[in-house]
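[job 0412] stage=complex_fold ligand=zinc ion status=START
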Amino acid sequence: MVDKWLVGVDLGGTTTKIAFLNWYGEIVHKWEIPTDVSDKGKHIIVHIAKSIDTMLAQLGHSKEMLLGIGLGAPGPVDVSRGIIFGAVNLGWENEYPLKDMLELETGLPVIAENDANCAALGEMWKGAGDGAKELVCVTLGTGVGGGIISNGHIVHGVNGAAGEIGHITVIPQGGALCNCGKTGCLETVASATGLVRMTKELLAKEDTPSSLRQKSLDKLTAKDVFDAAKVGDELAEKAVDQLAFYLGLALANLGNSLNPEYIVIGGGVSKAGNMLLEAIKSYFDQFAFPTVRTSTKLALATLGNDAGVIGAAWLAKHLLQR
Ligand code: ZN
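[job 0412] stage=complex_fold status=DONE, emitting structure tokens
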């Protein structure tokens, strides 16, 4: 069994990442294919299955080489039934039987899970979590995703919605509208989109000179804001400080509830690096219960885009061998 490979699939709205990993979680081969969401997403699973077959043939192996497939997908997943709900980005408006469809097309056992949960498992296994069994992972990208691991297992909750860290309310009144329909969610202030919006609001409201005023506002990105903050632009620093405040607040309250060994911060926004981590940590320390402050560590994710496929493969290793 240890000579065979695990398959990790990270299904995204525009690209799907696929990897073959060995038993120890080391990537043997990885590649990407575009996600074809046309015709209500009916080609997605067939394309993944074909791509796995093609790559196996290119590498000179038969299907015997594969133990099973772990699949991370963007939306709430009922893991026991292998069903994803309302993944509208993929064209799947209602329930979609991910596990059954991929098993049918590949002839291999499949386990499906939410993509942010897979990223958390990846960081636990091979990344910043360093094998810790108590871990929270928050992914800061276009949106804010989250995964909570307790005693080495993902916390799903009664209906698969546990770990939706992006939808913790941090602005009870007058916050911006979130994609989920609420207002004042963490996602509205701690995502790349949120940072850009807050920066634009500051630019409109304040007279502070800023290098960002030379940019076309339509094209302003989170990276522009971080780059300006790094060289001491006061207004950009203020926008980053707002993000750090809300994130520090939410993560401290998660810490107060769960006291994990690590809170791992990943996603595109986390590329801002130690400057951002230190800013978040100062607010985390302010809001965390003393024992949590001294025992829960904040860390930047280390696996980047590979976290999802590695975590999905972890599921294939641990849940498909019974
Ligand atoms: Zn929300």
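The domain at 130-302 is CATH 3.30.420.40 (Nucleotidyltransferase; domain 5).
[job 0412] exit 0
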